[in-house]
């Protein structure tokens, strides 16, 4: 199994860790300390030795932050984690606030005084964040202190060691482009931006650029590494030599100078003198900016020049994704057929998640399942309403008659990364559940059918997914879609569909389409497919070429949960066409029992008479 269902072995109860932290804070002369869910590379998913926020608070979500004072401990999370944070953090000693409505800098603006000294670890905060913090506390004439010692590390006596998983070469048949070809493009972009050097701190960018993969972080095949690109010499890649075998060392030596991570600060200082250095201020810690400026270099704030080429998939990556989704769809369909054959009350959430992973492994064939792409969200009834629910032995519950079951999962294969959510009925669904599910489906179809001109951004498409929900007084507290990597991170920027999605869509980008609805204590609904942005095409009768989405994900949508009287003709046609495509592609890949179930699950839907509640 790639996933553990163990609850934390030492749940954080009481304030013993907070007391120790406050002693260190006092020794350091600071009144506040920020503890973000960050590592030095701003990863979403962290290696065990960087899970400082989880160790201190008990909260294990993938986004959040905390502020500790001598009398308060505030945990900031977004809407995905509100219920989880309330369950995991000891409410006697922690207060949970909204990371969106009252982020740390706004809290500090309201809660600092002139004699306060607010401590941060400069390796865990980006320049853009530091500016917000300084502005916020500056109104009270408080001081921001960049600490030489991380105070959590000072008290975390059994902190795990750095991961040392082996580096693997990502074959050109999957990568589609050589490292030298990619370097030529990126260094050309550096010149456009006026940079002599560029620091890459996002491991996904380093791995994509150098065509390597690793396993330093659970479920995300990255190598924890940095790189410095130069306009006048070969690049430097900073990776622990213990991760390199003979073949990978020989490969990397052909395209870069391999340097120990312990020499990163020294080498950056040497190279920066008198040079223009590109730094992504939303990705690269302010510690790097400090090194460059101390060395008399000039920092040029610019987006990571690898991020857009990485997000714009080439032909090999696109074909790989299609292939991965075909196998993954066969596994998911087999799982749904198996689920449908289990009596209500006979399964629990862990058993279901394990079975799904087994189907993925069995269906992988000659392209083995390297990992799951994140911890499977396997939530029944009220647990489904926890957006990023992680089942453990303590929370595990049976799938009961009349409930909804939400499964959000994905696989990591050499040729692609998948991510799919299906919500299914256990027994006979209620009318409230059918109505809510259909409203979510309408939003999903709106994105799938969207046509849009060049220059369109995710912020402009996001309302399409919410409109049917809004008209009925519903909404969801997460984005509609995130970018997805090519055998890399399942959450990849810069593209997304959300209220903050400012990146223009470009053909070749892969993004999720996943509107949802969550009724606390009752049920959760989400329908997720991955879609590919395709080239501009002319529309008959139109005078402007438009882009659109190609759906990649193949698996039935539970028609028992659909009130077809709420669907328009176009929506009903999309559903039937989608199911026809799924049936044609998946049926040859599964055994006859599953194929029979698939034919029944994808029968064309006809319109119901309007229900009384509609």
Looking at the structure, what is the overall shape? globular
Radius of gyration: 25 Å
Proportion of residues in β-strands: 15-25%
Helix content: 25-40%
What does this structure look like?
- This protein has 614 residues and is α+β, with helices and mostly antiparallel strands.
- It has three domains: 16-155, 3-Layer(aba) Sandwich (Creatine Amidinohydrolase, Chain A, domain 1), CATH 3.40.350; 168-310, Creatine Amidinohydrolase, Chain A, domain 1 (3-Layer(aba) Sandwich); 312-601, Creatinase/methionine aminopeptidase superfamily (Creatine Amidinohydrolase, Alpha-Beta Complex).
- Helices cover 34% and strands 19% of the residues.
- It contains 19 helices and 28 strands.
- The strands form eight sheets. The protein has a six-stranded mixed beta sheet, sandwiched between helices. A six-stranded mixed beta sheet has the order 12-11-10-8-13-14, sandwiched between helices.
- Strand 27 and strand 28 form a beta hairpin.
- Helix 4 runs parallel beside helix 5 and helix 14 packs across helix 15.
- The longest helix is centred in the middle third of the chain and has 26 residues, at 315-340.
- The model has no long low-confidence stretch (mean pLDDT 95).
Q: Tags for this entry?
A:
614 residues; alpha+beta; Creatine Amidinohydrolase, Chain A, domain 1; Creatine Amidinohydrolase; 3 domains; 6-stranded mixed beta sheet; 19 helices; 34% helix; 19% strand; globular
């Amino acid at each position: 199994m790639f996933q553990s269902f163990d609850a934390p072995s030492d749940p954080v109860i009481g304030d013993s860790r907070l007391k120790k932290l406050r002693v260190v804070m006092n020794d350091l002369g600071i009144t506040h300390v920020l503890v973000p869910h960050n590592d030095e590379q701003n990863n979403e998913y962290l290696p065990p030795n960087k899970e400082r926020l989880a160790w201190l608070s008990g909260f294990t979500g993938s986004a959040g932050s905390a502020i500790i004072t001598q009398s308060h401990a505030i945990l900031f999370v977004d809407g995905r984690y509100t219920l989880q944070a309330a369950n995991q953090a000891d409410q006697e000693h922690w207060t949970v606030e909204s990371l969106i409505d009252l982020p740390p800098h706004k809290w500090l603006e309201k809660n600092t005084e002139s004699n306060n000294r607010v401590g941060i670890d400069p390796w865990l905060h980006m320049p853009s964040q530091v500016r917000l913090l300084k502005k916020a506390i500056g109104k009270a004439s408080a001081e921001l202190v960049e600490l030489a010692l991380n105070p959590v590390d000072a008290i975390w006596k059994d902190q795990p060691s750095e991961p040392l998983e082996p580096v693997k070469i990502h074959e050109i048949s999957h990568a589609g482009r050589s490292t030298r070809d990619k370097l030529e493009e990126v260094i050309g972009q550096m010149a456009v931006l006026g940079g002599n050097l560029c620091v890459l701190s996002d491991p996904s960018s380093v791995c994509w650029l150098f065509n390597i993969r690793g396993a330093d972080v659970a479920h995300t095949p990255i190598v924890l590494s940095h790189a410095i690109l130069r306009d006048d010499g070969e690049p430097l890649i900073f990776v622990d030599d213990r991760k390199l075998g003979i073949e990978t060392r020989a490969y990397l030596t052909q395209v870069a100078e391999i340097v120990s991570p312990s020499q990163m600060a020294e080498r950056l200082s040497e190279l920066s003198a008198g040079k223009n250095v590109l730094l992504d201020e939303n990705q690269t810690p302010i510690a790097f900016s400090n090194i460059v400026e101390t060395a008399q270099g000039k920092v040029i704030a610019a987006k990571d020049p690898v991020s857009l080429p990485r997000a714009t998939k080439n032909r090999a990556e696109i074909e790989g994704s299609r292939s991965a989704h075909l196998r993954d769809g066969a596994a998911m369909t087999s799982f749904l057929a198996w689920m449908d054959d289990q009596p209500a009350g006979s399964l629990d959430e862990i058993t279901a998640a394990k079975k799904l992973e087994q189907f993925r492994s069995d269906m992988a064939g000659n392209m083995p399942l390297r990992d799951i792409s994140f911890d499977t969200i396997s939530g029944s009834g009220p647990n489904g309403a926890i957006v990023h629910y992680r089942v453990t032995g303590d929370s595990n519950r049976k799938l009961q008659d009349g409930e909804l079951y939400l499964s959000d999962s994905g696989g990591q294969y050499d040729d692609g990364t998948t991510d799919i959510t299906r919500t299914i009925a256990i027994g006979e669904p209620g009318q409230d559940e059918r109505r809510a599910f259909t409203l979510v489906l309408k939003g999903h179809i709106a994105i799938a059918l969207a046509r849009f001109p060049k220059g369109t951004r995710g912020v402009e498409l996001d309302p399409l997914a919410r409109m049917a929900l809004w008209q009925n007084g519903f909404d969801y507290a997460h984005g509609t879609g995130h970018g997805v990597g090519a055998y890399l991170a399942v959450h990849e920027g810069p593209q997304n569909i959300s209220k903050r999605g400012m990146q223009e869509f470009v053909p070749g980008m892969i993004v999720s389409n996943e509107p949802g609805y969550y009724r606390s204590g009752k049920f959760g609904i989400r329908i997720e497919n991955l879609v590919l942005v395709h080239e501009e095409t002319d529309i008959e009768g139109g005078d402007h070429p438009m882009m659109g989405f190609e759906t990649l994900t193949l698996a039935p949508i539970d028609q028992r949960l659909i009130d077809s009287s709420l669907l328009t003709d176009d929506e009903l046609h999309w559903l039937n066409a989608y199911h026809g495509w799924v049936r044609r592609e998946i049926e040859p890949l599964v055994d006859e029992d599953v194929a029979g179930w698939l034919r029944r699950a994808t029968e064309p839907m006809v319109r119901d008479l309007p229900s009384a509640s509609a």
